[in-house]
Design brief:
The protein is mostly helical. It is built from eleven helices and no strands. It is globular, with a radius of gyration of 24 Å. Helix 2 packs parallel to helix 5 and helix 3 crosses helix 6.
Length: about 290
């Protein structure tokens, strides 16, 4: 009697004791590793880059405001900003192609980024877990260091508002390309409101378009702002032509010509924490496998 009566109690106790364990396991999966969190220096650089971009746009607005022909100047500034947005897409594509195909860990200045790119193809989910300043600070630092003197030079030369608008838009889109890139890999249900519509309209690089870049041999769809240049560059094989020029002049083969190295192949069900701890995530980290969820 006592034995049979105690059995249900033991099962209940067992269930009660296992519930916290399951909850703690689920909670641990939602914890962002320290390597993916923003640090104060990263926040400072992101703020500095944002301030430089804002200053450029404020200069644009001031020059339009004091202009004797505000309407035409505003139109010129808007067109220049669009040109900066377009050129930023092309620039990210060229940079992405260069890093993916040439150099190695020992390459001066860019070596760490080149090595890390192998990691982001292998472990592509990390970028969707990074906090904003952790993700954007490197490009924001470049914007802070380059845009301030560029804007000063434009002002010294009495450049029109359109010149400042172009510089500000180009810098803003290059910095934010990391965020657009992350959204191109995020699951649909996790996208902020409006982002999916912007992707569908071609304003931001879409999930479907960028997914093509992650198919071996990783030699298409390099642009990550809007992706507007991807079709032209791939259709006319612009990068393939550049690769041939480089090869004929230097005998250096791009990585995309060879069989994909195992270190580039995506690991199914990659562990974000392990990825971050290993440092396998580049400046232009590629994110998780595209999901229709």
């Amino acid at each position: 009697m006592s034995s049979s009566a105690s059995a249900p109690l033991s099962q209940a106790e067992s269930a009660t004791r296992t519930t916290p364990t399951m909850s703690s396991t689920a909670a641990s999966n939602d914890v962002i590793p320290d390597e993916l969190r923003s640090t104060w220096p990263q926040r400072a650089w992101t703020l500095a880059g944002s301030a430089a971009i804002l200053a450029s746009f404020l200069t644009t607005a001031r020059l339009v405001g004091v202009s004797g022909s505000a309407g035409p100047d505003l139109l010129a500034a808007a067109m220049a900003a669009f040109a900066g947005y377009s050129l930023a897409d092309l620039a990210t594509g060229v940079y992405h192609w260069l890093i993916d195909n040439y150099g190695g860990a020992g390459t001066p200045i860019l070596g760490a980024q080149i090595a890390a790119f192998q990691g982001h193809h292998r472990y592509p989910s990390t970028i969707t877990r990074r906090e904003p300043c952790n993700n954007l600070h490197a490009l924001a630092r470049a914007a802070a260091l380059a845009l301030v003197p560029a804007d000063a030079a434009l002002s010294a030369a009495s450049a029109p508002a359109a010149a400042h608008a172009f510089a500000g838009a180009f810098a803003a889109c290059v910095v934010l390309s990391q965020q657009f890139h992350a959204w191109a890999h995020e699951k649909r249900r996790r996208l902020p409101p409006g982002v999916e519509a912007l992707q569908a309209a071609g304003v931001l690089v879409s999930r479907a378009q960028h997914a093509a870049h992650h198919r071996q041999p990783y030699n298409t769809n390099y642009c990550i702002v809007s992706g507007m240049w991807n079709g032209v560059l791939d259709r006319y094989r612009v990068f393939e032509a550049l690769e041939m020029v480089v090869f004929l002049r230097t005998s250096v083969r791009p990585r995309s010509w060879d069989e994909t190295d195992a270190s580039w192949m995506e690991v199914a069900g990659d562990d974000v924490a392990a990825t971050a701890a290993a440092g396998d995530d580049g400046l232009l980290q590629t994110a998780s496998s595209i999901s229709s969820d």
